[in-house]
Amino acid sequence: MAVNRHNQSKRSNILVLSEALLIAYMGYITHFILIHLSITASVSIEKLAVNVGLITISILLCSLAVGLYEAKLRETFRGIIRRIFVSVGLSYFLVEVVSRAFFEHLIMDSYFLPAAMSAIVISLVVFRYFTNRLGLLGLGKARIVILGAGERASIIEKRMRRDVDRIGFELLGFIPIPGDNREEGIKKEKIIHVKVDENFQQFIADNDIEEIVIACDQRRGTLPIDVLFECRLRGIEVTDLLDFMERETGQIVVNLMYPSWVIYSNGFHSQNYLRDALDYSLNAFLATLVLFFTWPFMALTAFIIYLDDGRRTGTSVFYKQERVGLNGKLFKIIKFRSMRPDAEKDGAKWASKNDDRVTRIGHFIRKYRIDELPQLFNVFKGEMAFIGPRPERPEFVEKLVREVPYYNQRHNVKPGLAGWAQLNYPYGASVEDSMEKLKFDLYYVKHQSLLLDILILIRTVEVVLFGKGR
Fold first, then answer.
1. What angle do CA 382, 386, 389 make, to 5 degrees?
2. InterPro entries attached here (predicted)?
3. Structural contact between residues 352 and 426, judged by C-beta atoms closer than 8 angstroms
4. What is the C-alpha separation between 189 and 166, in angstroms, rounded?
5. pLDDT tens across 349-386, in order?
């Protein structure tokens, strides 16, 4: 355990030193860029050194205060970005106060501090992305062991097979627990045969284990509570399988959820009151901005659809369909028509990847998501948001609510033009697919934030530009 703590301390020291150099460099380079752009005048090296040093020290102290250098920080990348923003924001205030109180004669031009802080935020986010997400310096990468080797534990083997899925941790193996369904359990992963008793602490220490994930099939009477309690007291993280999967995969494993986990979790309602208050204003602004740039493409698309088959069949270039929105309220979604007029002559059907009902122009506009653009008017009407679970048809919702647990919880937020599920699981043409997409939808409902919305928007732009859409 002492070796493990030494390694953690060494990694943290390297991180502090690396970020100190990065912050100082960005402070210096910002000043020279401002001079080159003729925004500020050159200052003495002593004055610049004092200001850069003050910024560097204040950001390091604030980063330490918000836990960015905690050796056992188990945080999502979005959470790390939030901490960086808080740290730099506090530092901005601290530098302003300290410099005006003690170094007023050394205060730089008014453009320097905001420009430097902005550059530092961007550089720190990029730096943390490569260190945490790519496993550089071993930061954020914990040595873990799974308690359980049955059916529940097998979700890790099935869903996290690739190395890229395990960037955030080093998995030592799975420990079988009495009551595990081994027939449906771990097949190819390493099985560790060790008793979880009073000697388990020695196994933890010998292998430098930092986290234990509880994934056994039967808890009552089989889970070694006293041993786990002792591990927790010694600083070892003890994490439930559902929390582990949520943290590492960005989804909530609906089929493994149990009532007590839901009760003690944060729930599936937004706690971001500022975001909720500005919801319509932000969405209307974005819709106006997108409409300003895309209306020529929309007009051209409508004209081509009319020439393709609209003129011959007399069918509208738009397609209106009833969907389920916020709190189960029905509304009419508007899209460019991408299917034949008789596409649903035999009743409602799931759309599929290579649907033969799609027209010639329909394949193109669906691939680049152009068919979704008229939904901007649904945003203006307040029926949809830019980001949220994709709205489903009431005929399908009625069936899915009966067959998929917690399906109705996705209606706790407005449906959106783009969603977390669409980025991670693009095709849904069955109840099974709806179950998989719900895992991502519930993650979004539970973790909805402005930062997550921005991340989804950026990735959606990539999908549109490179034609990765449906």
1. 95
2. Bact_transf (IPR003362), EPS_sugar_tfrase (IPR017475), Sugar_tfrase_EpsB_2 (IPR017464)
3. no
4. 13
5. 666 666 668 888 888 888 888 889 999 999 999 999 99
- The length of the chain in residues reads 470
Return the CATH number of 142-249, one of 3.30.70.1130, 3.40.50.1100, 3.30.200.100, 3.40.50.720. Answer: 3.40.50.720
What string of DSSP letters covers 187-231?
A: SSSPB-----STTHHHHHHHTT--EEEE--S--TTTS-HHHHHHH
65's enclosing H/E stretch is: helix 45-65
Q: Which residue in the block uniquely carries the two structure tokens 């310096």?
A: 137
Return the domain boundaries, the chain: 2-138, 142-249, 274-343+351-465
- Cα 179 → chain centroid: 34
Give the β-pairing of 330-336 and 318-324: antiparallel
Copy the structure tokens of residue 43: 């200052």
* Tokens standing for residue 35: 């001079």
pLDDT in tens, 121-177: 999 988 887 776 665 655 556 789 999 999 999 999 988 887 767 877 889 999 999
